[in-house]
TrEMBL record:
SUPFAM superfamilies: CO dehydrogenase molybdoprotein N-domain-like, Molybdenum cofactor-binding domain
Protein name: Oxidoreductase
Organism annotation: Streptomyces hydrogenans
PANTHER family: XANTHINE DEHYDROGENASE, XANTHINE DEHYDROGENASE SUBUNIT D-RELATED
Entries under InterPro entries matching the protein: Ald_Oxase/Xan_DH_a/b, Ald_Oxase/Xan_DH_a/b_sf, Ald_Oxase/xanthine_DH-like, AldOxase/xan_DH_MoCoBD1, AldOxase/xan_DH_MoCoBD2, AldOxase/xan_DH_Mopterin-bd_sf
Domain Aldehyde oxidase/xanthine dehydrogenase a/b hammerhead: start-end pairs: 45-151
Pfam family, one: MoCoBD_1
SMART domains: Ald_Xan_dh_C
Chain segments carrying region Disordered: 1-33
Length: 775
């Protein structure tokens, strides 16, 4: 079947889809082993302590009053009725914030509590602490707020001319990228207008936390933070305290697809604890979770691609508009990624891209896995399908003629110095065997779009095959100082790793154990709980803990290794480089020395602290040029979908994935990360869109926001993992989970286009867009 074929499903035997070749045997410990996570059993049995499980003597319960309006002026706030209620211990508003009134990870533009003006639906107005959670919630309803409703600005295109929504104005950042000759043209020109919706991180466990006042006038915050030191510093500034008076203790993180923790949730919690002198706990409702934390940026994209008669790209012109919502958050960083990757992993001699991030009265946008890169991938891959259609070329072949390779230039002028095996990835998914077609029989009707209760007819189902290539950057960008510190201590043959890198489900704590096992030959390795008494390790984003924190652990472990081997080397008159540790044994190159790690460790305490800091980057200049990224990772996906062309129902049958991973450190964990990323991307492609009407969130719950379930997850085949090590990265490994999230929505959209003949220019794909075009 050709990749752009459209075929009615006939009655055929259903054959097993081909899977990847059997994997070679892997070691039982150390790097390359499928070591299970230490907390896997506790999580499976429900005994793992999450923030919502915490308790303290004399505990009070908190609740937040949130704005029911998207844009309004606060005329007055009367808290007297709430304060008079039995059981209410404290009420705090903007007037009660003792320190900085605003906060923000990159721009401090977001108020702790709305002060005079409400800028988005769900913005915090006040917080209450009470003896019982029901009392706290009832007290929020007793607060009388008089609003003067204002016209919300919800269309980001209108934000440029609208009255300023914030003292800093409506424009957060503008990047005009210019690369090559603006007069260059191609023989074939295709244009498109694309929209990407508002995807929510939708953590299974909603935000929760516990604040405990300290005798020194400080406070401890127990939360599922993914960047505890930044959260500590932001909170301390708002509390009017020194950073060392605030301690953030990281509790169990119930999964995270980015910075899932919301400082605007933690800061009111700490204020209440400081005001009452009692421990205070806050557990968000699902509605509060949807309203409070950041979402993926809704994006409007206009594209024009120029190509020659052979389908080789000549020039790409694009305009990218990110809806940041009410506050800046990480929009500047997201815009940089969107503009830099606007052409995708393709060689483009001339590129002219303008990008804007603007404030509106819509829900806040921020970091969600693959931010910026996912939105542009959906657009540039749609453009590649249009070019293939105009030229009458197979979509995979057209992509193959243009793929990026090591040594090529990005439109930012940066040379791709890391491995970029894009052609190899595309060939792997292109050549992978297509799945068989399902039988047209009642017992197999669950395989059709809509499942057994669907109203469609099997004869109306068409199969489509689509391709997409995606890329993401590793670590922070544009001059971000990436540094992490780790300590490795060994006592009585047991190793402990101390590092404030938060394991958000990425498996860092497992990787740290493997690194120490590999380096020191010690089987029993523990990773200490994370808090801000430890040196900072940075945010758990962009695969940085695999690289930076993993690199710090490796360096510390190697320093301990040197301490262990030096006495032996001195005794035998050789250097430590001539000794090796393997399977718990220490041997010399000539076989003269042979002992065990356990014997040499007996009674000793060895420890070392080390840092890892990658090479520096630079901000993009006024033309969008600069070496802004430490490294890149790539992915190719082929999607196979079945579409009911009368009802517009879509079922993703299979996703074939080939990925550039640098080095496989934990095979099972890597496969899980890739499969999870693909599934999250399928949700963005088909169902996930936090809908708003005039800035008000509609149905902020898990019935109105449709997450993909196990029944929606397709067969995912990891057909190839390219292990071409990046020489500047510790272990040579690359981040694994973001790039399939970026690539899979574009692949699903391409497959739906192939099945229906429709352009599919919006994500998530609406049923009316999946109804086949009239002949």
């Amino acid at each position: 079947m050709s990749s752009d074929a459209t075929t009615a499903i006939p009655t055929l035997p259903f054959a097993e889809a081909a899977g990847p070749a059997p994997e070679p045997e892997t070691p039982l410990h150390g790097l390359g082993a499928s070591l299970p996570q230490a907390d896997a059993r506790a999580k499976a049995e429900g005994t793992f302590p999450y923030a919502s499980d915490l308790w303290a003597e004399g505990l009070l319960w908190a609740a937040l009053l949130r704005s029911p309006h998207a844009h309004a002026r606060i005329v007055s706030i009367d808290t007297s009725a709430a304060e008079a209620m039995p059981g209410v211990r404290a009420v705090v508003t903007a007037a009660d914030v003792p320190g900085a009134a605003t906060y923000g990870r990159q721009v401090a533009d977001r108020p702790v509590f709305a002060d005079g003006l409400v800028r988005h639906h769900g913005e915090a107005i006040a917080a209450i602490a009470a003896d019982h959670p029901d009392t706290a919630r009832l007290a929020t309803a007793a607060i009388l707020v008089e609003y003067e409703l204002l016209e919300p600005v919800t269309d980001p295109e209108k934000a440029f001319a609208a009255e300023p929504l914030h003292p800093d104005g409506n424009l957060i950042r503008h990047i005009p990228l210019s690369f090559g000759d603006p007069e260059a043209t191609g023989e074939i020109v295709v244009e498109g207008l694309y929209r990407v919706g508002r995807q929510d991180p939708a953590p299974i466990g909603a935000e929760a936390g516990l604040a405990v006042p300290r005798p020194d006038g400080g406070v401890e915050l127990y939360t599922a933070s993914t960047d505890p030191h930044t959260d500590r510093d932001l909170a301390a500034a708002c509390f009017g305290l020194a950073p060392d008076q605030v301690k953030v203790v990281v509790t169990g993180v119930p999964g995270a697809t980015g910075d899932r923790d919301d400082p605007g949730f933690q800061i009111p919690l700490g204020l209440l604890a400081l005001r009452t002198g009692c421990p205070v706990k806050l557990t968000a409702t699902r509605e509060e979770s949807f309203l409070g934390h950041a979402h993926r940026h809704p994006t409007l994209l206009r594209y024009r691609h120029h190509a020659d008669a052979d389908g080789r790209l000549v020039k790409v012109e694009a305009q990218i508009l990110l809806d940041a919502g009410a506050y800046a958050d990480s929009s500047s960083e997201s815009l940089a990624a969107a503009v830099a990757f606007a052409c995708g992993p393709y060689v483009v001699p001339h590129a002219f891209v303008e990008g804007w991030a603007v404030r509106t009265n819509n829900p806040p946008s921020g970091h969600v896995r693959g931010e910026g890169a996912m939105q542009v991938c959906a657009a540039y891959e749609a453009q590649m399908d249009k070019l293939a259609g105009r030229l009458g070329v197979d979509p995979a072949e057209l992509r193959m003629r243009n793929v990026l390779a090591t040594g090529d230039l990005l439109p930012t002028g940066q040379t791709v110095t890391c491995p970029a095996p894009v052609a190899e990835l595309l060939a792997a998914v292109r050549d992978f065997r297509l799945p068989a077609l399902p039988k047209d029989t009642p017992e197999e009707d669950w395989l059709l779009p809509g499942g057994p209760e669907g109203a469609g007819e099997p004869g109306a189902v068409r199969r489509g095959v689509g391709y997409a290539l995606g890329m993401v950057h590793m670590l922070g960008a544009e001059g971000t100082d990436e540094v992490s510190t780790a300590t490795v201590r060994v006592l009585d043959g047991v190793a402990t790793v101390i590092c404030s890198a938060v394991d958000t489900g990425s498996g860092f704590s497992t990787l740290a154990r493997q690194i120490v096992q590999e380096t020191l030959g010690v089987d029993e390795v523990h990773v200490a709980p994370v808090d801000t008494d430890q040196p900072p390790a940075g945010a758990a984003t962009h695969g940085r803990h695999t690289w930076v924190s993993g690199g710090a652990v490796e360096r510390a472990a190697k320093m301990v290794r040197t301490q262990l081997l030096q006495p032996l080397a001195h005794k035998f008159g050789m250097s430590t480089e001539l000794l090796q540790i393997s399977d718990g044994k220490i041997t010399s190159y000539d076989g003269v020395l042979s002992t065990t790690v356990a014997e040499e460790m007996d009674g000793k305490e060895l420890w070392a602290t080390a840092q890892c800091r990658p090479h520096p980057t630079e901000p993009l200049d006024e033309s969008g040029q600069g070496d802004a990224f430490v490294g890149l990772a790539f992915c190719a996906i082929r999607a196979v979908v079945d579409v009911d062309i009368e009802l517009g129902a879509v079922r993703v049958v299979e996703m074939a994935v080939a990925q550039d991973v640098g080095r496989v450190l934990n095979p099972a964990q890597l496969a899980t990360r890739i499969e999870a990323g693909v599934t999250q991307g399928v949700g963005a492609a088909l169902t996930e869109n936090l809908r708003t009407a005039r800035g008000l969130v509609r149905h902020p719950d898990l019935t109105g926001y449709a997450l993909p379930t196990s029944l929606d997850a397709p067969d995912i085949h990891i057909v190839k993992l390219v292990e071409e090590r990046d020489v500047v990265a510790p272990f040579g490994a690359k981040p694994a989970s973001a790039v399939p999230v970026v690539t899979s929505p574009a692949a699903v959209a391409a497959a739906v286009r192939a099945a229906t003949g429709r352009p599919v220019n919006r994500l998530p794909i609406r049923p009316q867009a999946a109804v086949a075009a009239t002949p």
